[in-house]
Design goal:
- The chain is α/β, with parallel strands linked by helices and 375 residues long.
- The protein is 43% helix and 15% strand.
- The protein is globular and about 60 Å long.
- The model has no long low-confidence stretch (mean pLDDT 93).
């Protein structure tokens, strides 16, 4: 009689992934339903809709929220600009939660005039005179905030509480709209380690043109010394011999890329370095089994202690730490294990969606990573 085939390492990893997804998703869903009004909302005919432009980093976040919602049986529609005809499908639901930006508030509000629901506005900042940000709100955006105020439940900003106080007070003071620190996270269904051979020492998935000086300072010597894989826009204009290469589906290849390199590089904007946020790469690189080394963004330490994520004080320190872990790769393993455990237990988009629904429907959050500034 033929013996049963033995499970392979790949089968074992797949089973562990399935067990992890089931365990975490169910645990957070149970927390979601603790709130009576949220429980009633879920049992009605609700839907969530993101409406806006397609943007690489935002797409990763929205896909994470979509996958979390669908794993709980909540319909999630993703409508990009140009496909507005698809918004009509939302009229079949009793309640709709819109996630959108200020530019499209009037479109969302027009539909909500015909359906129950609310808007969660994606907006990292208002318009303070000393703001270092790239995309401030326009006068037309601010007018839309007043016109659509009755439909806006909360502003979603990646800023830490201190950053909200500096950059987001206009939402509260001028319009009475609360602001949530909507921290980045990982997509439990798509961000996971894989068993692949190491193909190079360094990997960076991100554009060059947004942080040219900081990339030159921090990445210059490491890229000259070590083998690397780079994907992103603007690199053909950099001082490095790297072509522009874009990822059609980040989530499909991130596990292989982050697991397949010794070190995942990270770098931040100046306003992020001031302490008000850390980028999505901080979370998804470790979620995909990567070993993360970043420039100094203090917000990282709000989420990861020093034995989980390595942070460098300056370009020289950055290079020294890369050299150390390239030469001693086994020392990375405790960091990788602890950091991934951290994001799975605290920083999935299931957690983020639970907090968002709790606040919009119940008026408070369930977890401690998305505090809300209300006055």
């Amino acid at each position: 009689m033929d013996s049963e085939p033995r499970p392979t390492a790949v089968d074992s990893m797949a089973q562990r992934r399935a067990d992890e997804i089931g365990r975490v998703s169910q645990s957070i869903y149970d927390e979601l339903l603790v709130a009576p009004r949220v429980r009633n909302w879920v049992r009605s005919r609700p839907a969530i809709c993101f409406y806006g432009h397609s943007q690489p980093a935002r797409n990763v976040q929205i896909r994470g929220l979509r996958d979390a919602a669908r794993s709980w049986g909540i319909p999630f529609h993703w409508v990009t600009v140009g496909d507005e005809r698809l918004l009509a499908q939302l009229l079949k639901y009793d309640h709709v939660l819109f996630i959108t930006t200020a530019t499209f508030l009037r479109v969302a509000a027009a539909l909500l005039a015909r359906r129950n629901g609310a808007i969660a506005l994606v907006a990292n900042w208002y318009t303070p005179p000393d703001s270092p940000v790239i995309w401030p709100h326009t006068p037309a955006d601010i007018a839309a905030l007043d016109e659509c105020r009755e439909h806006i439940a909360v502003v979603l900003s990646e800023c830490a509480p201190e950053g909200k106080g500096k950059y987001c007070r206009g939402f509260i003071d001028n319009h009475g709209i609360p602001v949530m620190s909507f921290t980045w996270g990982i997509n439990l269904l798509r961000h996971f380690p894989v068993a692949v051979p190491k193909v190079a020492e360094l990997v960076f998935l991100g554009s060059y043109f947004e942080k040219t000086t900081r990339i030159n300072d921090y990445f210059g010597e490491p890229l000259r010394r070590f083998r690397h894989t780079i994907y992103g826009a603007g690199w053909s204009s950099s001082p490095f011999p790297i072509p522009d290469r874009m990822l059609e589906d980040f989530d499909a290849v991130a596990p292989t890329l982050y697991s397949g390199h010794t070190i995942s590089l990270n770098v931040h904007h100046p306003y992020e370095e001031e302490g008000f946020t850390c980028n999505e790469r901080t979370f998804n690189s470790v979620g995909c089994g990567g070993f993360h080394i970043s420039d100094y963004a203090p917000r990282i330490r709000d989420h990861f202690p020093a034995d989980e994520v390595v942070v460098a004080d300056n370009p020289g320190d950055f290079l020294a730490k890369i050299e150390h872990f390239v030469q001693n790769p086994e020392e990375r393993l405790p960091y990788i294990e602890k950091a991934r455990r951290r994001v799975v237990e605290n920083h999935t988009y299931h957690h983020r969606l639970c907090d968002l629904l709790w606040y919009v429907i119940e008026g408070k959050t369930r977890y401690g990573h998305c505090p809300v500034l209300e006055s």
